[in-house]
Each structure stands twice: as structure tokens, then as C-alpha cells.
């Protein structure tokens, strides 16, 4: 078990194994996102109350789910880095944070735009929206802290601590629609119940969520590999590897 | 199809500005993420190759001088 974790934490081993996995995740993401988009935009029935503005759900919900998942991943990576000093965990954290911030922005923007025809306002200071805005600022904090120190290790540690502290916001976001009165509707997907919408509405949403997850995994693998090249550039195996590439492609 | 025609799809039953701006921002950020990741990887590999070449030239020159 420990040998396995150690192996997993080795950049060289990770670089080799991720080379084989990454293309599959990119392919899966492309297929799922194209199918989900066409299905959601053109084939899913329009909502009887909201009409076609409801189609925003197909980017809003996946982005919001990813925003939470990325932050949880940041906290896990931060914990691993602080406890076991595994550099690979910090490399992953460094590339996950900007994507998580982007997803949080997409969730907030699409939600605001959706709010105009549905609620008659693009913003209300209610629990769900406000806690999500705090999430965006937490991402900014994690990204800024990483770059705010002269030594990479200090920045990485500070960012890890903020990620671990900031993870408290995740359950607040999740339960905000239950704890407080809010305009925001409750979760579409739960583990215990069937969605309250018909299958031809939630199936494309499920496809989009899976597509966003595959995209996130593919992007994280690709960029962590780049991060390895950047930080381990003095290592023999990294330099040999660069020579094996023709003209800097793939 | 939930729409009669392509025009109807684009019009989104009067909700076009909302639907397409939300989808547009999401698509743009995903595309930018992919493009950035590709460019970053290519640039890093090119940098490593340049450094390898420089060091090889340097060591060749040293042997020539000896």
C-alpha cells in the first residue's frame, strides 16, 4: 500500500501512466460534451414554465458541480501535500485552482443570466448565490497566495492551508437551499431520489455533467504533466524526454 | 427536435440572449482552457529542447578546445 502511494507520488511514474490515460479522457469529454450539447439545446423539451431559458441548466449545473468538486480536490491535494510532502499533489493543486475559479465564474454568470427571465433579477444576496460568490473569492485567494511568496514551498503551503480552511464553504453552499429561504431551487440530482424532471430533460444534463468531469480530469492530467516538465526540468529523464519529441509537438 | 427550424432554435423562443450568452461563456472558457494547456505543453517542450541543444553545443566546444 505504502509502496503504491509512493510510486503514485513519483512524477516520473505519473508522467508515464498519465500519457496513456489522458487521450481517453479528452476523447470521452469531446463525445459527451457534443452529444450533451446537441441533446440539451435542440432535442430536450422546453420547460412548461420557463420555456427555452431552462436550457441554461445544461451549462449551469455541470459548472456549479465542478466548482465544488475542484475545491474539494484542492483541499485533498493540499492535505496530502502538507502531511506527506508529496510534490505531485501540489502540482495538481496548482493547475486545478484556475479551472475551479473558471467553473465558479461560469456557474455565477449563467445563473445571473438565467435569473433575468426567470426571477426578474440577475442577482439577489441570498444564501446560495452569496456562498457561491465567496467560493470564487476563495479560489482567487488560493491562486494569489501561491504566487505571493518568494519560495515555492511557502506559497504551496499557504495555498494548501487556505484550501483546507475554505472547504468549510462547500457544505454551506450545498445546504444553503435547505437552511435558508432562497430563490434558488433545490438540487437537481441527489443520490437517493429520482430527479423531479422528466428523463428527456435530466438525461442530457447527466451527459453534460459527465462530460465536464472528463474534461476536468483530462485538463488536470495534461496540465499536471506540463507542471512536471516545468518543475523537474533539471532531471535527466525529463531532458531525454524532450529530445524524443519532434519539433515540440505532443 | 424541440424546434421547428434552425431559426427557431437560434431564437430560443425569445430567450436567445440568455441561453446563448450563458452557453457562449461556458464554451469560450472550455476552449481557452484547452488551447492554453496545449500551448503551455508545446512551449515547455521547446524550451527543454533548446536547453539540451545549448548544453550539447557547449560540451562539444569544450572538447574542441582541449
UniProtKB/TrEMBL annotation, chain A:
GO cellular component: plasma membrane
Superkingdom of the source species: Bacteria
Family the UniProt entry places it in: Belongs to the CcmC/CycZ/HelC family.
Gene: ccmC
Organism of origin: Modicisalibacter xianhensis
Residues annotated as domain Cytochrome c assembly protein: 14-184
Membrane topology: Multi-pass membrane protein
Record's keyword annotation contains Repressor: no
Main location: membrane
Annotated compartments: Cell inner membrane; Membrane
Function: Required for the export of heme to the periplasm for the biogenesis of c-type cytochromes.
The protein's name: Heme exporter protein C
Keyword Heme in annotation: no
UniProtKB/TrEMBL annotation, chain B:
GO biological process terms, semicolon-separated: cytochrome c biosynthetic process; cytochrome complex assembly; heme transport
Species, as recorded: Modicisalibacter xianhensis
Domain of life: Bacteria
Coiled-coil spans in chain: 34-65
Record's signal peptide: none
Keywords: Cell inner membrane, Cell membrane, Coiled coil, Cytochrome c-type biogenesis, Membrane, Transmembrane, Transmembrane helix, Transport
Subcellular location, principal: membrane
Membrane-topology annotation of the record: Single-pass membrane protein
Protein name as annotated: Heme exporter protein D
Transmembrane segments: 20-39
Family of the protein in this entry: Belongs to the CcmD/CycX/HelD family.
Compartment(s) of residence: Cell inner membrane
Gene Ontology terms: cellular component: plasma membrane
NCBIfam families registered for this protein in UniProt: cytochro_ccmD
Protein function: Required for the export of heme to the periplasm for the biogenesis of c-type cytochromes.
A Pfam family annotated for this UniProt entry: CcmD
Amino acid at each position: 500500500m505504502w509502496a503504491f502511494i509512493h510510486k503514485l507520488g513519483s512524477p516520473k511514474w505519473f508522467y508515464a501512466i498519465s500519457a496513456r490515460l489522458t487521450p481517453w479522457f479528452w476523447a470521452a469529454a469531446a463525445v459527451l460534451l457534443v452529444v450533451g450539447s446537441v441533446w440539451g439545446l435542440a432535442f430536450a423539451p422546453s420547460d412548461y414554465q420557463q420555456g427555452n431559458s431552462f436550457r441554461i441548466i445544461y451549462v449551469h449545473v455541470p459548472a456549479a458541480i465542478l466548482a465544488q468538486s475542484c475545491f474539494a480536490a484542492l483541499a485533498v491535494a493540499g492535505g496530502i501535500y502538507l502531511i506527506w510532502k508529496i510534490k505531485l499533489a501540489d502540482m495538481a493543486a496548482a493547475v486545478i485552482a484556475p479551472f475551479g475559479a473558471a467553473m465558479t465564474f461560469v456557474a455565477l454568470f449563467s445563473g445571473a443570466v438565467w435569473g433575468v427571465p426567470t426571477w426578474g433579477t440577475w442577482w439577489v444576496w441570498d444564501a446560495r448565490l452569496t456562498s457561491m460568490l465567496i467560493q470564487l473569492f476563495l479560489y482567487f485567494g488560493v491562486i494569489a497566495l501561491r504566487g505571493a511568496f518568494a519560495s515555492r514551498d511557502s506559497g504551496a503551503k499557504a495555498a494548501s492551508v487556505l484550501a483546507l480552511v475554505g472547504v468549510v464553504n462547500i457544505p454551506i453552499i450545498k445546504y444553503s437551499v435547505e437552511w435558508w429561504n432562497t430563490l434558488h431551487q433545490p438540487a437537481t440530482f441527489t443520490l437517493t431520489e429520482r430527479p423531479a424532471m422528466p428523463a428527456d430533460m435530466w438525461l442530457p444534463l447527466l451527459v453534460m455533467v459527465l462530460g465536464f468531469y472528463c474534461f476536468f480530469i483530462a485538463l488536470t492530467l495534461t496540465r499536471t504533466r506540463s507542471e512536471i516538465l516545468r518543475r523537474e526540468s533539471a532531471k535527466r529523464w525529463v531532458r531525454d524526454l524532450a529530445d524524443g519529441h519532434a519539433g515540440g509537438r505532443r | 427536435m424541440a424546434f421547428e427550424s434552425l431559426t427557431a432554435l437560434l431564437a430560443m423562443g425569445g430567450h436567445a440572449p440568455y441561453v446563448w450568452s450563458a452557453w457562449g461563456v461556458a464554451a469560450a472558457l472550455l476552449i481557452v482552457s484547452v488551447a492554453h494547456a496545449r500551448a503551455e505543453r508545446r512551449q515547455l517542450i521547446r524550451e527543454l529542447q533548446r536547453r539540451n541543444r545549448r548544453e550539447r553545443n557547449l560540451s562539444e566546444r569544450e572538447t574542441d578546445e582541449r
